[in-house]
Request: fold
Amino acid sequence: MLNDGKSNRVAVIGGSRIPFCRANTGYKDSSNQEMMTATLKAVVEKYNLQDKRLGDVALGAVIKHSSDWNLSRECIIDSGLSINTPGVDMQRACGTSLETTLNIANKIALGQIEAGIAGGVDSISDAPIVYSDSFRKILLASAHGKSIQEKIKPWLRMRLRYLKPKLPGVKEPRTGLSMGESTEIIAKKYNISRQSQDELAMKSHINAAKAYDEGFYKNLVQPFKGIHEDNIIRRNIAIDKLKLLKTVFDKSEYGSMTPGNSTSLTDGAAAVLLSSEEWAHNNNLKIKAYLTHCEIAAIDYINDEGLLMAPAYAVSSMLKKANLNLQDFDFYEIHEAFAAQTLATLRAWESEEFCHSKLDRKTAMGKIDPIKLNIKGGSLAIGHPFAATGARIIATMAKLLDDKGSGRGLISICTAGGMGITAIMEK
Reply:
């Protein structure tokens, strides 16, 4: 509905986030609700939304405790917004907060609401620990007992092995491979060298550090827990240091992925404010950019394509609908789950064979200008709290376009399950 010429234009007012932190460091004692509430409060204060009733707030988390079942609504109540603002929880793996953004955007486009907030949060540090099903059944049976005897009897079945926890993992249930293991396969398939991966990682850190030094993130990042800057950024990074790191997903001589060219497990939260043009004007808020197109794709990663290659397909389809070429953009924000995945996506677009056989194109989509890619740092440097990355990127792109005063930006995010979610923003 965003680009049909009949719907309301969707304005991106801007966003805010807390600094992203490596898991089990700065936010090791913070919950999803605490981080997301702090981020919502930052948006409320930034745009003077105190006691305002918004049409909807869509938030999400990939890793949730059972107590987080109504996370969005609970965060709203403590955010400073009117308690009459509704909320909804959503999830699309690493694309969660881009999905929540599109949910709010489409409601605005259809005239269902005038304004809303989209966002996401994830804590690896506070991941839920699950025990065996046998232990769960004993607990439930005991809890349902009506007498002392009925409450004690189930515990007679207890065995020490039932206490062995099921630790959280990121393996795909259909392949049994982790994202890193899956991406090693992609790296080999697309001939992505260790050198090129390390170079992309180094560039990500250099760009992120420079952006902080130049004040780009001053109005985008709200200090939290005494932390003012993403603590994953390596200011003293050097290619020689990256070369020394050992591979982690394929430890043979053929492996190429290391902790240096892969995203770190990260805690954090981000959110963005969207509205109709009229609502923005009525509330004296500047429109930084417009959200104009979006596309979602899923691929057969079990039998055919690499797990994280779906954005290559989604971007192609989106550009066809928008009647644009890959080169028609001033900025590219491509999520760096792994350097190898980002580079493989770029290589696929440059491949005549891939574009013809997979994307139904007569010619290759071609190259992008690397100078325009993730110019304020990407996920390799900033970090990747799964559900927060999309909102981080939306807010970054809005500021980039607003600072330039014109232009167009492409957003691309890969996700677990062989999916990709993409969008176009314009000034």
Remarks:
- The chain has 14 helices and ten strands.
- The first strand starts at residue 10 and ends at 17.
- The chain has a mean pLDDT of 96.
